[in-house]
Amino acid sequence: MWGNYKMKKILLMLLFATFLFGGAILAATGGDQAKDDEYDEDEYGPADPIIWVKPVKSVVFEHKIHTMEAGLDCDSCHDDLFEMEAGVAEENDDFTMESLYDGGYCGSCHDGDTAFASDTRCTACHIGVRGHTRLVGEEEMPSH
Amino acid sequence: MKINDLEQLESEDITTLPSTERRTFLKMGLAVTGMYLSGTVLSLTTAGRVNAANVVPESGEYPYNPHYSMVMREHLCIDCERCKEACTKTNHVPSHGFRTTILEKRRSLGGDAYETIFVPVLCNHCNRPPCVRVCPTTATWKDEKTGIVVMEPSRCIGCKTCMAACPYNARYFKEETRAVDKCNFCLDTRLSKGETTTACAEACPADVRVFGNLADPDSRVFQLLHSPGTTVWVLRPETGAMPNVFYINS
After folding, report:
1. Is the pTM of this model over 0.80?
2. Residues 31-60, chain A: which have Cβ within 8 Å of B?
3. A42-140, superfamily in CATH?
């Protein structure tokens, strides 16, 4: 009778321990997943895409693809190729495809060796007016 | 008529038909069947002119001179829409319509990767234009010299049959003029004033749109379409309209 009670108690504790341990494991893995999903802006740059509208509408740049996925550091591009401040490059007169072909700006890597050449796969970066509207919204559309 | 009277009448079924009458009827049936059958048999043989590979007419077989056409170097289009802006400005296109526009396609590259393809479209100035054929008031026709499909707004009654007939959605109803409007390769706004190219082609920063005279072997359109190893395609070739806007990827 007494032994039965003791056994029950042990079983109960075992069950409790299993729950606790399992919960801990789940919490740990869940935490890990959250860490993977969490994009660290301090480490990888702004989460929002950079959108250039000059000289043509529109070109998109994703920090995530270049830093987190391709493994580039901030100083791979900043501040030699691009100013940290958004929108500075597109005010330059030489922010053109011609400069890219000469190894300037994106062309520094997008030369066909390090990354796909600037004169190929146009729509990988050029999202056009349609893509711009999708990202930014209708109000940015030119009225014509 | 009473049921008794009806029973007195001569039967009208085939048993009372004279055999000659039956034979002629049978002959007619065979003739009709034969006509259709022969058509089907004929359609199995190769028809040279309806070959999908030959979307570009053979050299020397251009109905017009200048035979205006446009070549789209499709993969270079980035949808900046400067062509649209230039067209709108040059030809006073209202915001509710378009003479040219850019379509967007997405092609799977396997996995999660996709590629965007922008497709510039405009009137194809077909050699056999369905829109011209259906117009009840001859408000639209092929220009005899250039082959451009032109519109005379004052003759248009706005029935929109041409809009329904066009396989390319290249026409819209312009409220301002109460007439259908469409691309005319800038014939009235530029070509007739001595310009050699359309507003859209001039505005394109990526050199996607190449406009010119296909009947001239020295023209860039001719060179692009006739360079070795180039795949040339047109939109909706199955309609048989023989469009004059060609697409290449080189």
Report:
1. no
2. 55-57
3. Cytochrome C3 (3.90.10.10)
User: Residue B224: which H helix or E strand, with range?
Assistant: helix B220-225
Chains A and B: how many Cβ contacts under 8 Å? 51
Q: Give per-residue pLDDT as tens, A16-60.
A: 777 766 666 655 554 444 445 678 888 888 888 999 998 999 999
Cα dihedral: B189, B193, B195, B201 (round 10): 10
Check pLDDT > 90 for residue B20: no
**Under an 8 A CB cutoff, do A143 and B78 touch?**
no
**Residues of A whose CB is below 8 A from B117:** 123
* CATH number of the B57-248 domain: 3.30.70.20
Token couple for A59: 């070109």
Q: Where are the domains of chain A?
A: 2-38, 42-140
The pairing of strands B171-174 and B149-151 is: unpaired
- B28-77, pLDDT tens digit by residue? 999 988 888 776 666 665 555 555 457 888 777 778 889 999 999 999 99
Whether the CB of A138 is below 8 Å from some CB of chain B: the reply is: no
Q: Tell me whether residues B75 and A127 touch, CB distance under 8 A.
A: no
Mean pLDDT of A60-75: 91
Q: Where are the domains of chain B?
A: 57-248
pLDDT at A33: 47
Say if A98 is an interface residue toward chain B (CB within 8 Å): no
